[in-house]
Amino acid sequence: MSISKTDRPALILIDIQKAFDNLEYWGGQRNNQNAESNAGELLNLWRVNNLPIFHIKHCSSNPTSLLNEVNEGNEFKDIVKPTDGESIIKKNVNSAFIGTNLKELLDNAKISKLVIVGLTTDHCVSTTTRMAGNFGYDTFLVSDATAAFNKKGLDGQDFSANLIHETALASLNEEFATVVTTDFIKQNI
Q: Is the pTM value of this prediction over 0.85?
């Protein structure tokens, strides 16, 4: 798949929220520390080129979650904070398409190509990417503008954040999306 600014691709920024700064809450280890700055670079590129932007915000229904709307962690990180006129889609499940009007907005705008960045690679990014691919969008997932946290296995083994990230990307690539880098997108938009 190819991509250029004439395609008018949408940038989908998933859950880049302050709650994810609390490493201990999410497992203690995170990979790809530059994910947010790379997402910010792409956001600026989209703004300069007047391309469609959708900010996705996870609003947990669990009152004790750092992502619940009553908590400061629900706020977008400053590096990708929406500006006036940019769409904000609130969700309370992993997919940005479930219980939201994202698909309707994309289809009404005749958007067929998506560029996905955000947190976390193995949860909301993966679920949204899978649905985007299933809906038929030409989807590009930016590997260095996403990140994951470490996980405990069923028998207690520790899976590193990087392993979780790389495995999630491998399971999405060439089936649900084309996995690319920030530089690839910058060279083509």
A: yes
